[in-house]
Amino acid sequence: MALRPLFLLLLSFSPSHAGLQTYFATCVKGMEPVLASELRSGLVDAQDVEEGHLGVHFRGSHRAGGQAVLWLRSAIRVMEQLSYGEGLFQPEDLYDFTRESVRWTDLLARKDQTLSVSAICGAARAVESGRARPGDWVCAECGGLVFASRTECFACGAPTPAAAESGLTHSHFSALTVKNAVCDAMRDACGWRPSVDTADADLPLFLYLHRGQATLYRVCSGSASMHKRGYRAGAIHAAALRETTAAGLLLHAGYRPEEQVLCDPMAGSGTFAIEAALIATNTAPGLLRAQPPIASPGWAEGGQADWEELVQEARAALRPCAPLPILANDLHGGALELARRGAEAAGVSSSIHFTEGGVAAFVPRDSPDLVVSNPPWDLRLESGSEAWQELGSFLKRSCGGSTAWLLSGNKDLTRHLRMRKSESLRLENAGVSLVWLKYDVLRPKSDGGVSSSAAAIAPVEDALPAQRDTERPGHRVVGTVEEAEPLQDKGLQEVAVEAGMTAGDEVQEVFDGAELEQGMREEIDAAMLEQATRESEVERLTVAELKDELQLRGLTDSGVKSQLLERLEEDDSRIALLEANRVESASTSVKMADGTGLPEDDLEALFSSLYD
């Protein structure tokens, strides 16, 4: 009879970390850096913070674990590691490991306390993610993942283990094995077996098993996910964003409540606005999840007093209202009603200003500094392209100089913004790949569409005395050469130079010429914007589309995509340069004619006299 592989039990703490526990806070994929920043922010007394896959590892006392449960905004669960073992390939190994590695009487001291166990096996996770197929098995000798069609391991040649047939690679079977081990240990020690409550257990356990390595956790945050803050009851908007995801995205966007007016022009059920208000009022999310009387998350003796102290500290840190306005707008009254109810339940209704209407007609009462939104891209896709176009128009019209962060799960819709992103974060939420996109919104031109240089001349005109007798009919004096120089207005200085003026000469401007020059400037600006938009659209073309476009232009269509893109962008730049030169040439001709100081009729008479 072959001996079962011995497992190596590694304690969850070492002498150098005496009194400290090992924790793992879980999050959605892509949010690990945000969660790690939270743990390093000082709100949690965390040590040895290290990003992992779908979460962050850290060490700390039981008090640090309580702080994490109370304050972390982007975490889904906070789990304390109870034990870790290796060489667990048989069900008996897992059973013995569970019984012997933890003193269960310290965690289940009363008969009325309940238990729940959930498990994830690495092999099952690999199948779910597509890295493995159903039937693939884990080698009992080396822990390698082997194809189902093989009867022996690729690496070491070991035969198919009985564990693959017994169900140890099955998450439900592994969870039952752990549950039986805990119940049997309690029966032998105390004479009774704890009951199981999968919905709201006093001791929720979590097992991760992969390649013979088992990590057993106690879920400090409870059976429910931490995204369930407690301010949403009953109906939930179909496209509502998870609270933990929304809070993490706000933190990644660098939301500063003391400095920024935040606006969500497509607020839906108000998740962004409510989470922003919780940040602005310094409300610990754990205060909302654990309504009074607040129970301890199952700490050891003395933990209840520490927990109550942390709760009192969190309540004392609350602010009555957000320092700056938080604006939330949406077209649908039903969604806004859900948002208002949620804000009221969260205690932040006074910090959020709600308005109802389409984004095309939305005029924020305060100038936004930070715009965040989850525009329609999936469940609300019926009018997605139109919504993104209206959102782009809103940003350019009402949010100049601000920063916009938009969430999208459909890259084809983002092009309707006609804006170029400056940064992005990829994440997964509920099995859907999402992108958090940053846009730096440029400030619009001055009132009336006048460019900055033309607007700079106006104060000089207003400061000059009334029209002088030396002015010719149809002209006005706008300053002298010396007065024009500090303005740094190239158009005005070029007129002076081309007219042969010197310091002290009056710089005169023909009314029609000034208007035409302004039109030329606007035409150049429009061409530059069109070119930027064109470049953004070109990047999204497929290889076949790029080749078709190059063939239409009579250009070479061979090469990889990067070469095709470069060739097409070079041709676009050449065309844009030719157009800009044409416009500039026309503008220069107008300036030279105006620089003579003669009206149009006099110029015509002058030229006619030269050939008489």
TrEMBL record:
GO terms for biological process: methylation. Residues 1-18 form the signal peptide. Pfam families: RlmL_1st, SAP, THUMP, UPF0020. Residues 64-220 form the THUMP domain. Keywords: Coiled coil, Metal-binding, Methyltransferase, RNA-binding, Signal, Transferase, Zinc, Zinc-finger. Residues 529-581 form a coiled coil. GO terms for molecular function: RNA binding; RNA methyltransferase activity; zinc ion binding. GO terms for cellular component: tRNA methyltransferase complex. Residues 538-572 form the SAP domain. Residues 133-162 form the RanBP2-type domain. It comes from the Eukaryota. PANTHER family: RIBOSOMAL RNA LARGE SUBUNIT METHYLTRANSFERASE K/L, RIBOSOMAL RNA LARGE SUBUNIT METHYLTRANSFERASE K_L. This is SAP domain-containing protein. It comes from Prymnesium parvum.
